[in-house]
C-alpha cells in the first residue's frame, strides 16, 4: 500500500510489516532470524487488534473512507455469481452513482442496488463520488418495483457521503424523490436487505436504506449528516469534525446499541481494505442467512414487521411535557 493511503494510526503497523518483509527476504535464515520473524508476526497481529479496538468515531470515519476499501463493484465480483446491469430511470437518464440489476447469490436471484464511488479520478467524476441525483433514486425505485412484481428479494449496498448537493439536483426534485423512495420501499412486498459498506451519509443513504434487515460493516458509519457537515452547522468550522463525529454516535456499535441497525458485520483484522476477499466472504454469509430467514415470511407480514421496525426507532414524548 502506498504511503499516501496509510492512515496515521496505521503507520506503525506498516512500518513493522516493512521490516518483516526485509527480514523474510534474507537467504538461509538462522534460528534467531526465524524466532524474530515469528515474534514480529505476533507483534503485528497484536498491534492491529489493539489499534482497531480503540478507534474513536472520527478514526472510524477515516477507515470508512479509505481509498482502498472495497466498493460496490468489488462486492459484485466477489460475492455474487453473476450480474446483469439495468440502466436508466425511464425519465431523464442513467445515474452512474447507483448501479442496479439482476444478480445471483448462491443460486438465489436478487435485485441488486448499490452506490458506487469510483477509484480513479475519471470513475469518481462519472459516479459523482457516490452522490446520486434524482434520476439515480428513480432508477433504484423502478428496479425495486420490478423485483416486487416478480417476487425477487432486494439487496442494497450503501456507500455515499450524501445525495448530490447541486442546484440542478434540487431543481429536479432531489428531496421529493428520496421521500418517495422512503415511502415506496416501506410498502414493497418482497424482502429487502440493506448493508452500509462504507459511508452511510444523510438522505443519500436513506434513499435506498429502508429494509427488513439493516446491517453495517464494523468500521463503516451511518448518520443523519457527515461529521464535517455537522461541524459546519453547529461549530461553524469543519476543524471540529472530530468532536462532531463523537457527538453523532454513528459507529456500528453505537447504532446497534440504540437499535437503529440489526447487525454489525465483522471486518478483517485491520479493516476491510486489508483483505477484500475475507470481507466479501463475511458479507456473503450475512446476506445468505438473512435472505433465508426473510424468504420464509409471508409478504403481508413482511411489510407489517418492517413498519414496526422503523416505528420503534427513537424516543418519543407524546404528552408535550418537558423534563
Automatic annotation (TrEMBL):
Pfam families in the record: ACCA
Catalysed conversion reaction: N(6)-carboxybiotinyl-L-lysyl-[protein] + acetyl-CoA = N(6)-biotinyl-L-lysyl-[protein] + malonyl-CoA
Major localization listed first in the record, in broad terms: cytoplasm
Pathway as given in its UniProt record: Lipid metabolism; malonyl-CoA biosynthesis; malonyl-CoA from acetyl-CoA: step 1/1
Function: Component of the acetyl coenzyme A carboxylase (ACC) complex. First, biotin carboxylase catalyzes the carboxylation of biotin on its carrier protein (BCCP) and then the CO(2) group is transferred by the carboxyltransferase to acetyl-CoA to form malonyl-CoA.
GO molecular function, one term: acetyl-CoA carboxylase activity
Native organism: Gimesia aquarii
Name of the gene this protein is made from: accA
Annotated GO biological process: fatty acid biosynthetic process; malonyl-CoA biosynthetic process
The protein's name in its UniProt record: Acetyl-coenzyme A carboxylase carboxyl transferase subunit alpha
EC numbers for this chain: 2.1.3.15
InterPro entries linked to this entry: Acetyl_CoA_COase_a_su, ClpP/crotonase-like_dom_sf, COA_CT_C
Swiss-Prot/TrEMBL keywords: ATP-binding, Cytoplasm, Fatty acid biosynthesis, Fatty acid metabolism, Ligase, Lipid biosynthesis, Lipid metabolism, Nucleotide-binding, Transferase
Domain CoA carboxyltransferase C-terminal stretches: 39-293
Amino acid at each position: 500500500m502506498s504511503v499516501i493511503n496509510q492512515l496515521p494510526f496505521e503507520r506503525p503497523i506498516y512500518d513493522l510489516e516493512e521490516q518483516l518483509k526485509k527480514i523474510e527476504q534474507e537467504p538461509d535464515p538462522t534460528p534467531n532470524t526465524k524466532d524474530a520473524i515469528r515474534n514480529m508476526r505476533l507483534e503485528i497481529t497484536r498491534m492491529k487488534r489493539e489499534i482497531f479496538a480503540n478507534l474513536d468515531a472520527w478514526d472510524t470515519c477515516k477507515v470508512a473512507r479509505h481509498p482502498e476499501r472495497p466498493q460496490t463493484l468489488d462486492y459484485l465480483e466477489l460475492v455474487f455469481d453473476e450480474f446483469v446491469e439495468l440502466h436508466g430511470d425511464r425519465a431523464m437518464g442513467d445515474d452512474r452513482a447507483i448501479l442496479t440489476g439482476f444478480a445471483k447469490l448462491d443460486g438465489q436471484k436478487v435485485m441488486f442496488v448499490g452506490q458506487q464511488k469510483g477509484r480513479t479520478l475519471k470513475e469518481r467524476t462519472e459516479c459523482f463520488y457516490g452522490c446520486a441525483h434524482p434520476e439515480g433514486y428513480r432508477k433504484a425505485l423502478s428496479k425495486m418495483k420490478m423485483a416486487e412484481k416478480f417476487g425477487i428479494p432486494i439487496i442494497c449496498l450503501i456507500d455515499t457521503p450524501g445525495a448530490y448537493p447541486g442546484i440542478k439536483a434540487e431543481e429536479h426534485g432531489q428531496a421529493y424523490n428520496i421521500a418517495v423512495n422512503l415511502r415506496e420501499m416501506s410498502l414493497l412486498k418482497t424482502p429487502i436487505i440493506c448493508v452500509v459498506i462504507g459511508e452511510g451519509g444523510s438522505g443519500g443513504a436513506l434513499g435506498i436504506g429502508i429494509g427488513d434487515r439493516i446491517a453495517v460493516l464494523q468500521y463503516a458509519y451511518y448518520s443523519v449528516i457527515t461529521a464535517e457537515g455537522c461541524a459546519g452547522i453547529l461549530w461553524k468550522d469543519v476543524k471540529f469534525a472530530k468532536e462532531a463525529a463523537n457527538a453523532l454516535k454513528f459507529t456500528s456499535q453505537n447504532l446497534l446499541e440504540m437499535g437503529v441497525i440489526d447487525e454489525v458485520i465483522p471486518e478483517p483484522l485491520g479493516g476491510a481494505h486489508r483483505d477484500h476477499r475475507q470481507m466479501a466472504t463475511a458479507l456473503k454469509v450475512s446476506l445468505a442467512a438473512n435472505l433465508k430467514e426473510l424468504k420464509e415470511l409471508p409478504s403481508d407480514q413482511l411489510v407489517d414487521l418492517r413498519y414496526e421496525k422503523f416505528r420503534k426507532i427513537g424516543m418519543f414524548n407524546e404528552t408535550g411535557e418537558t423534563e
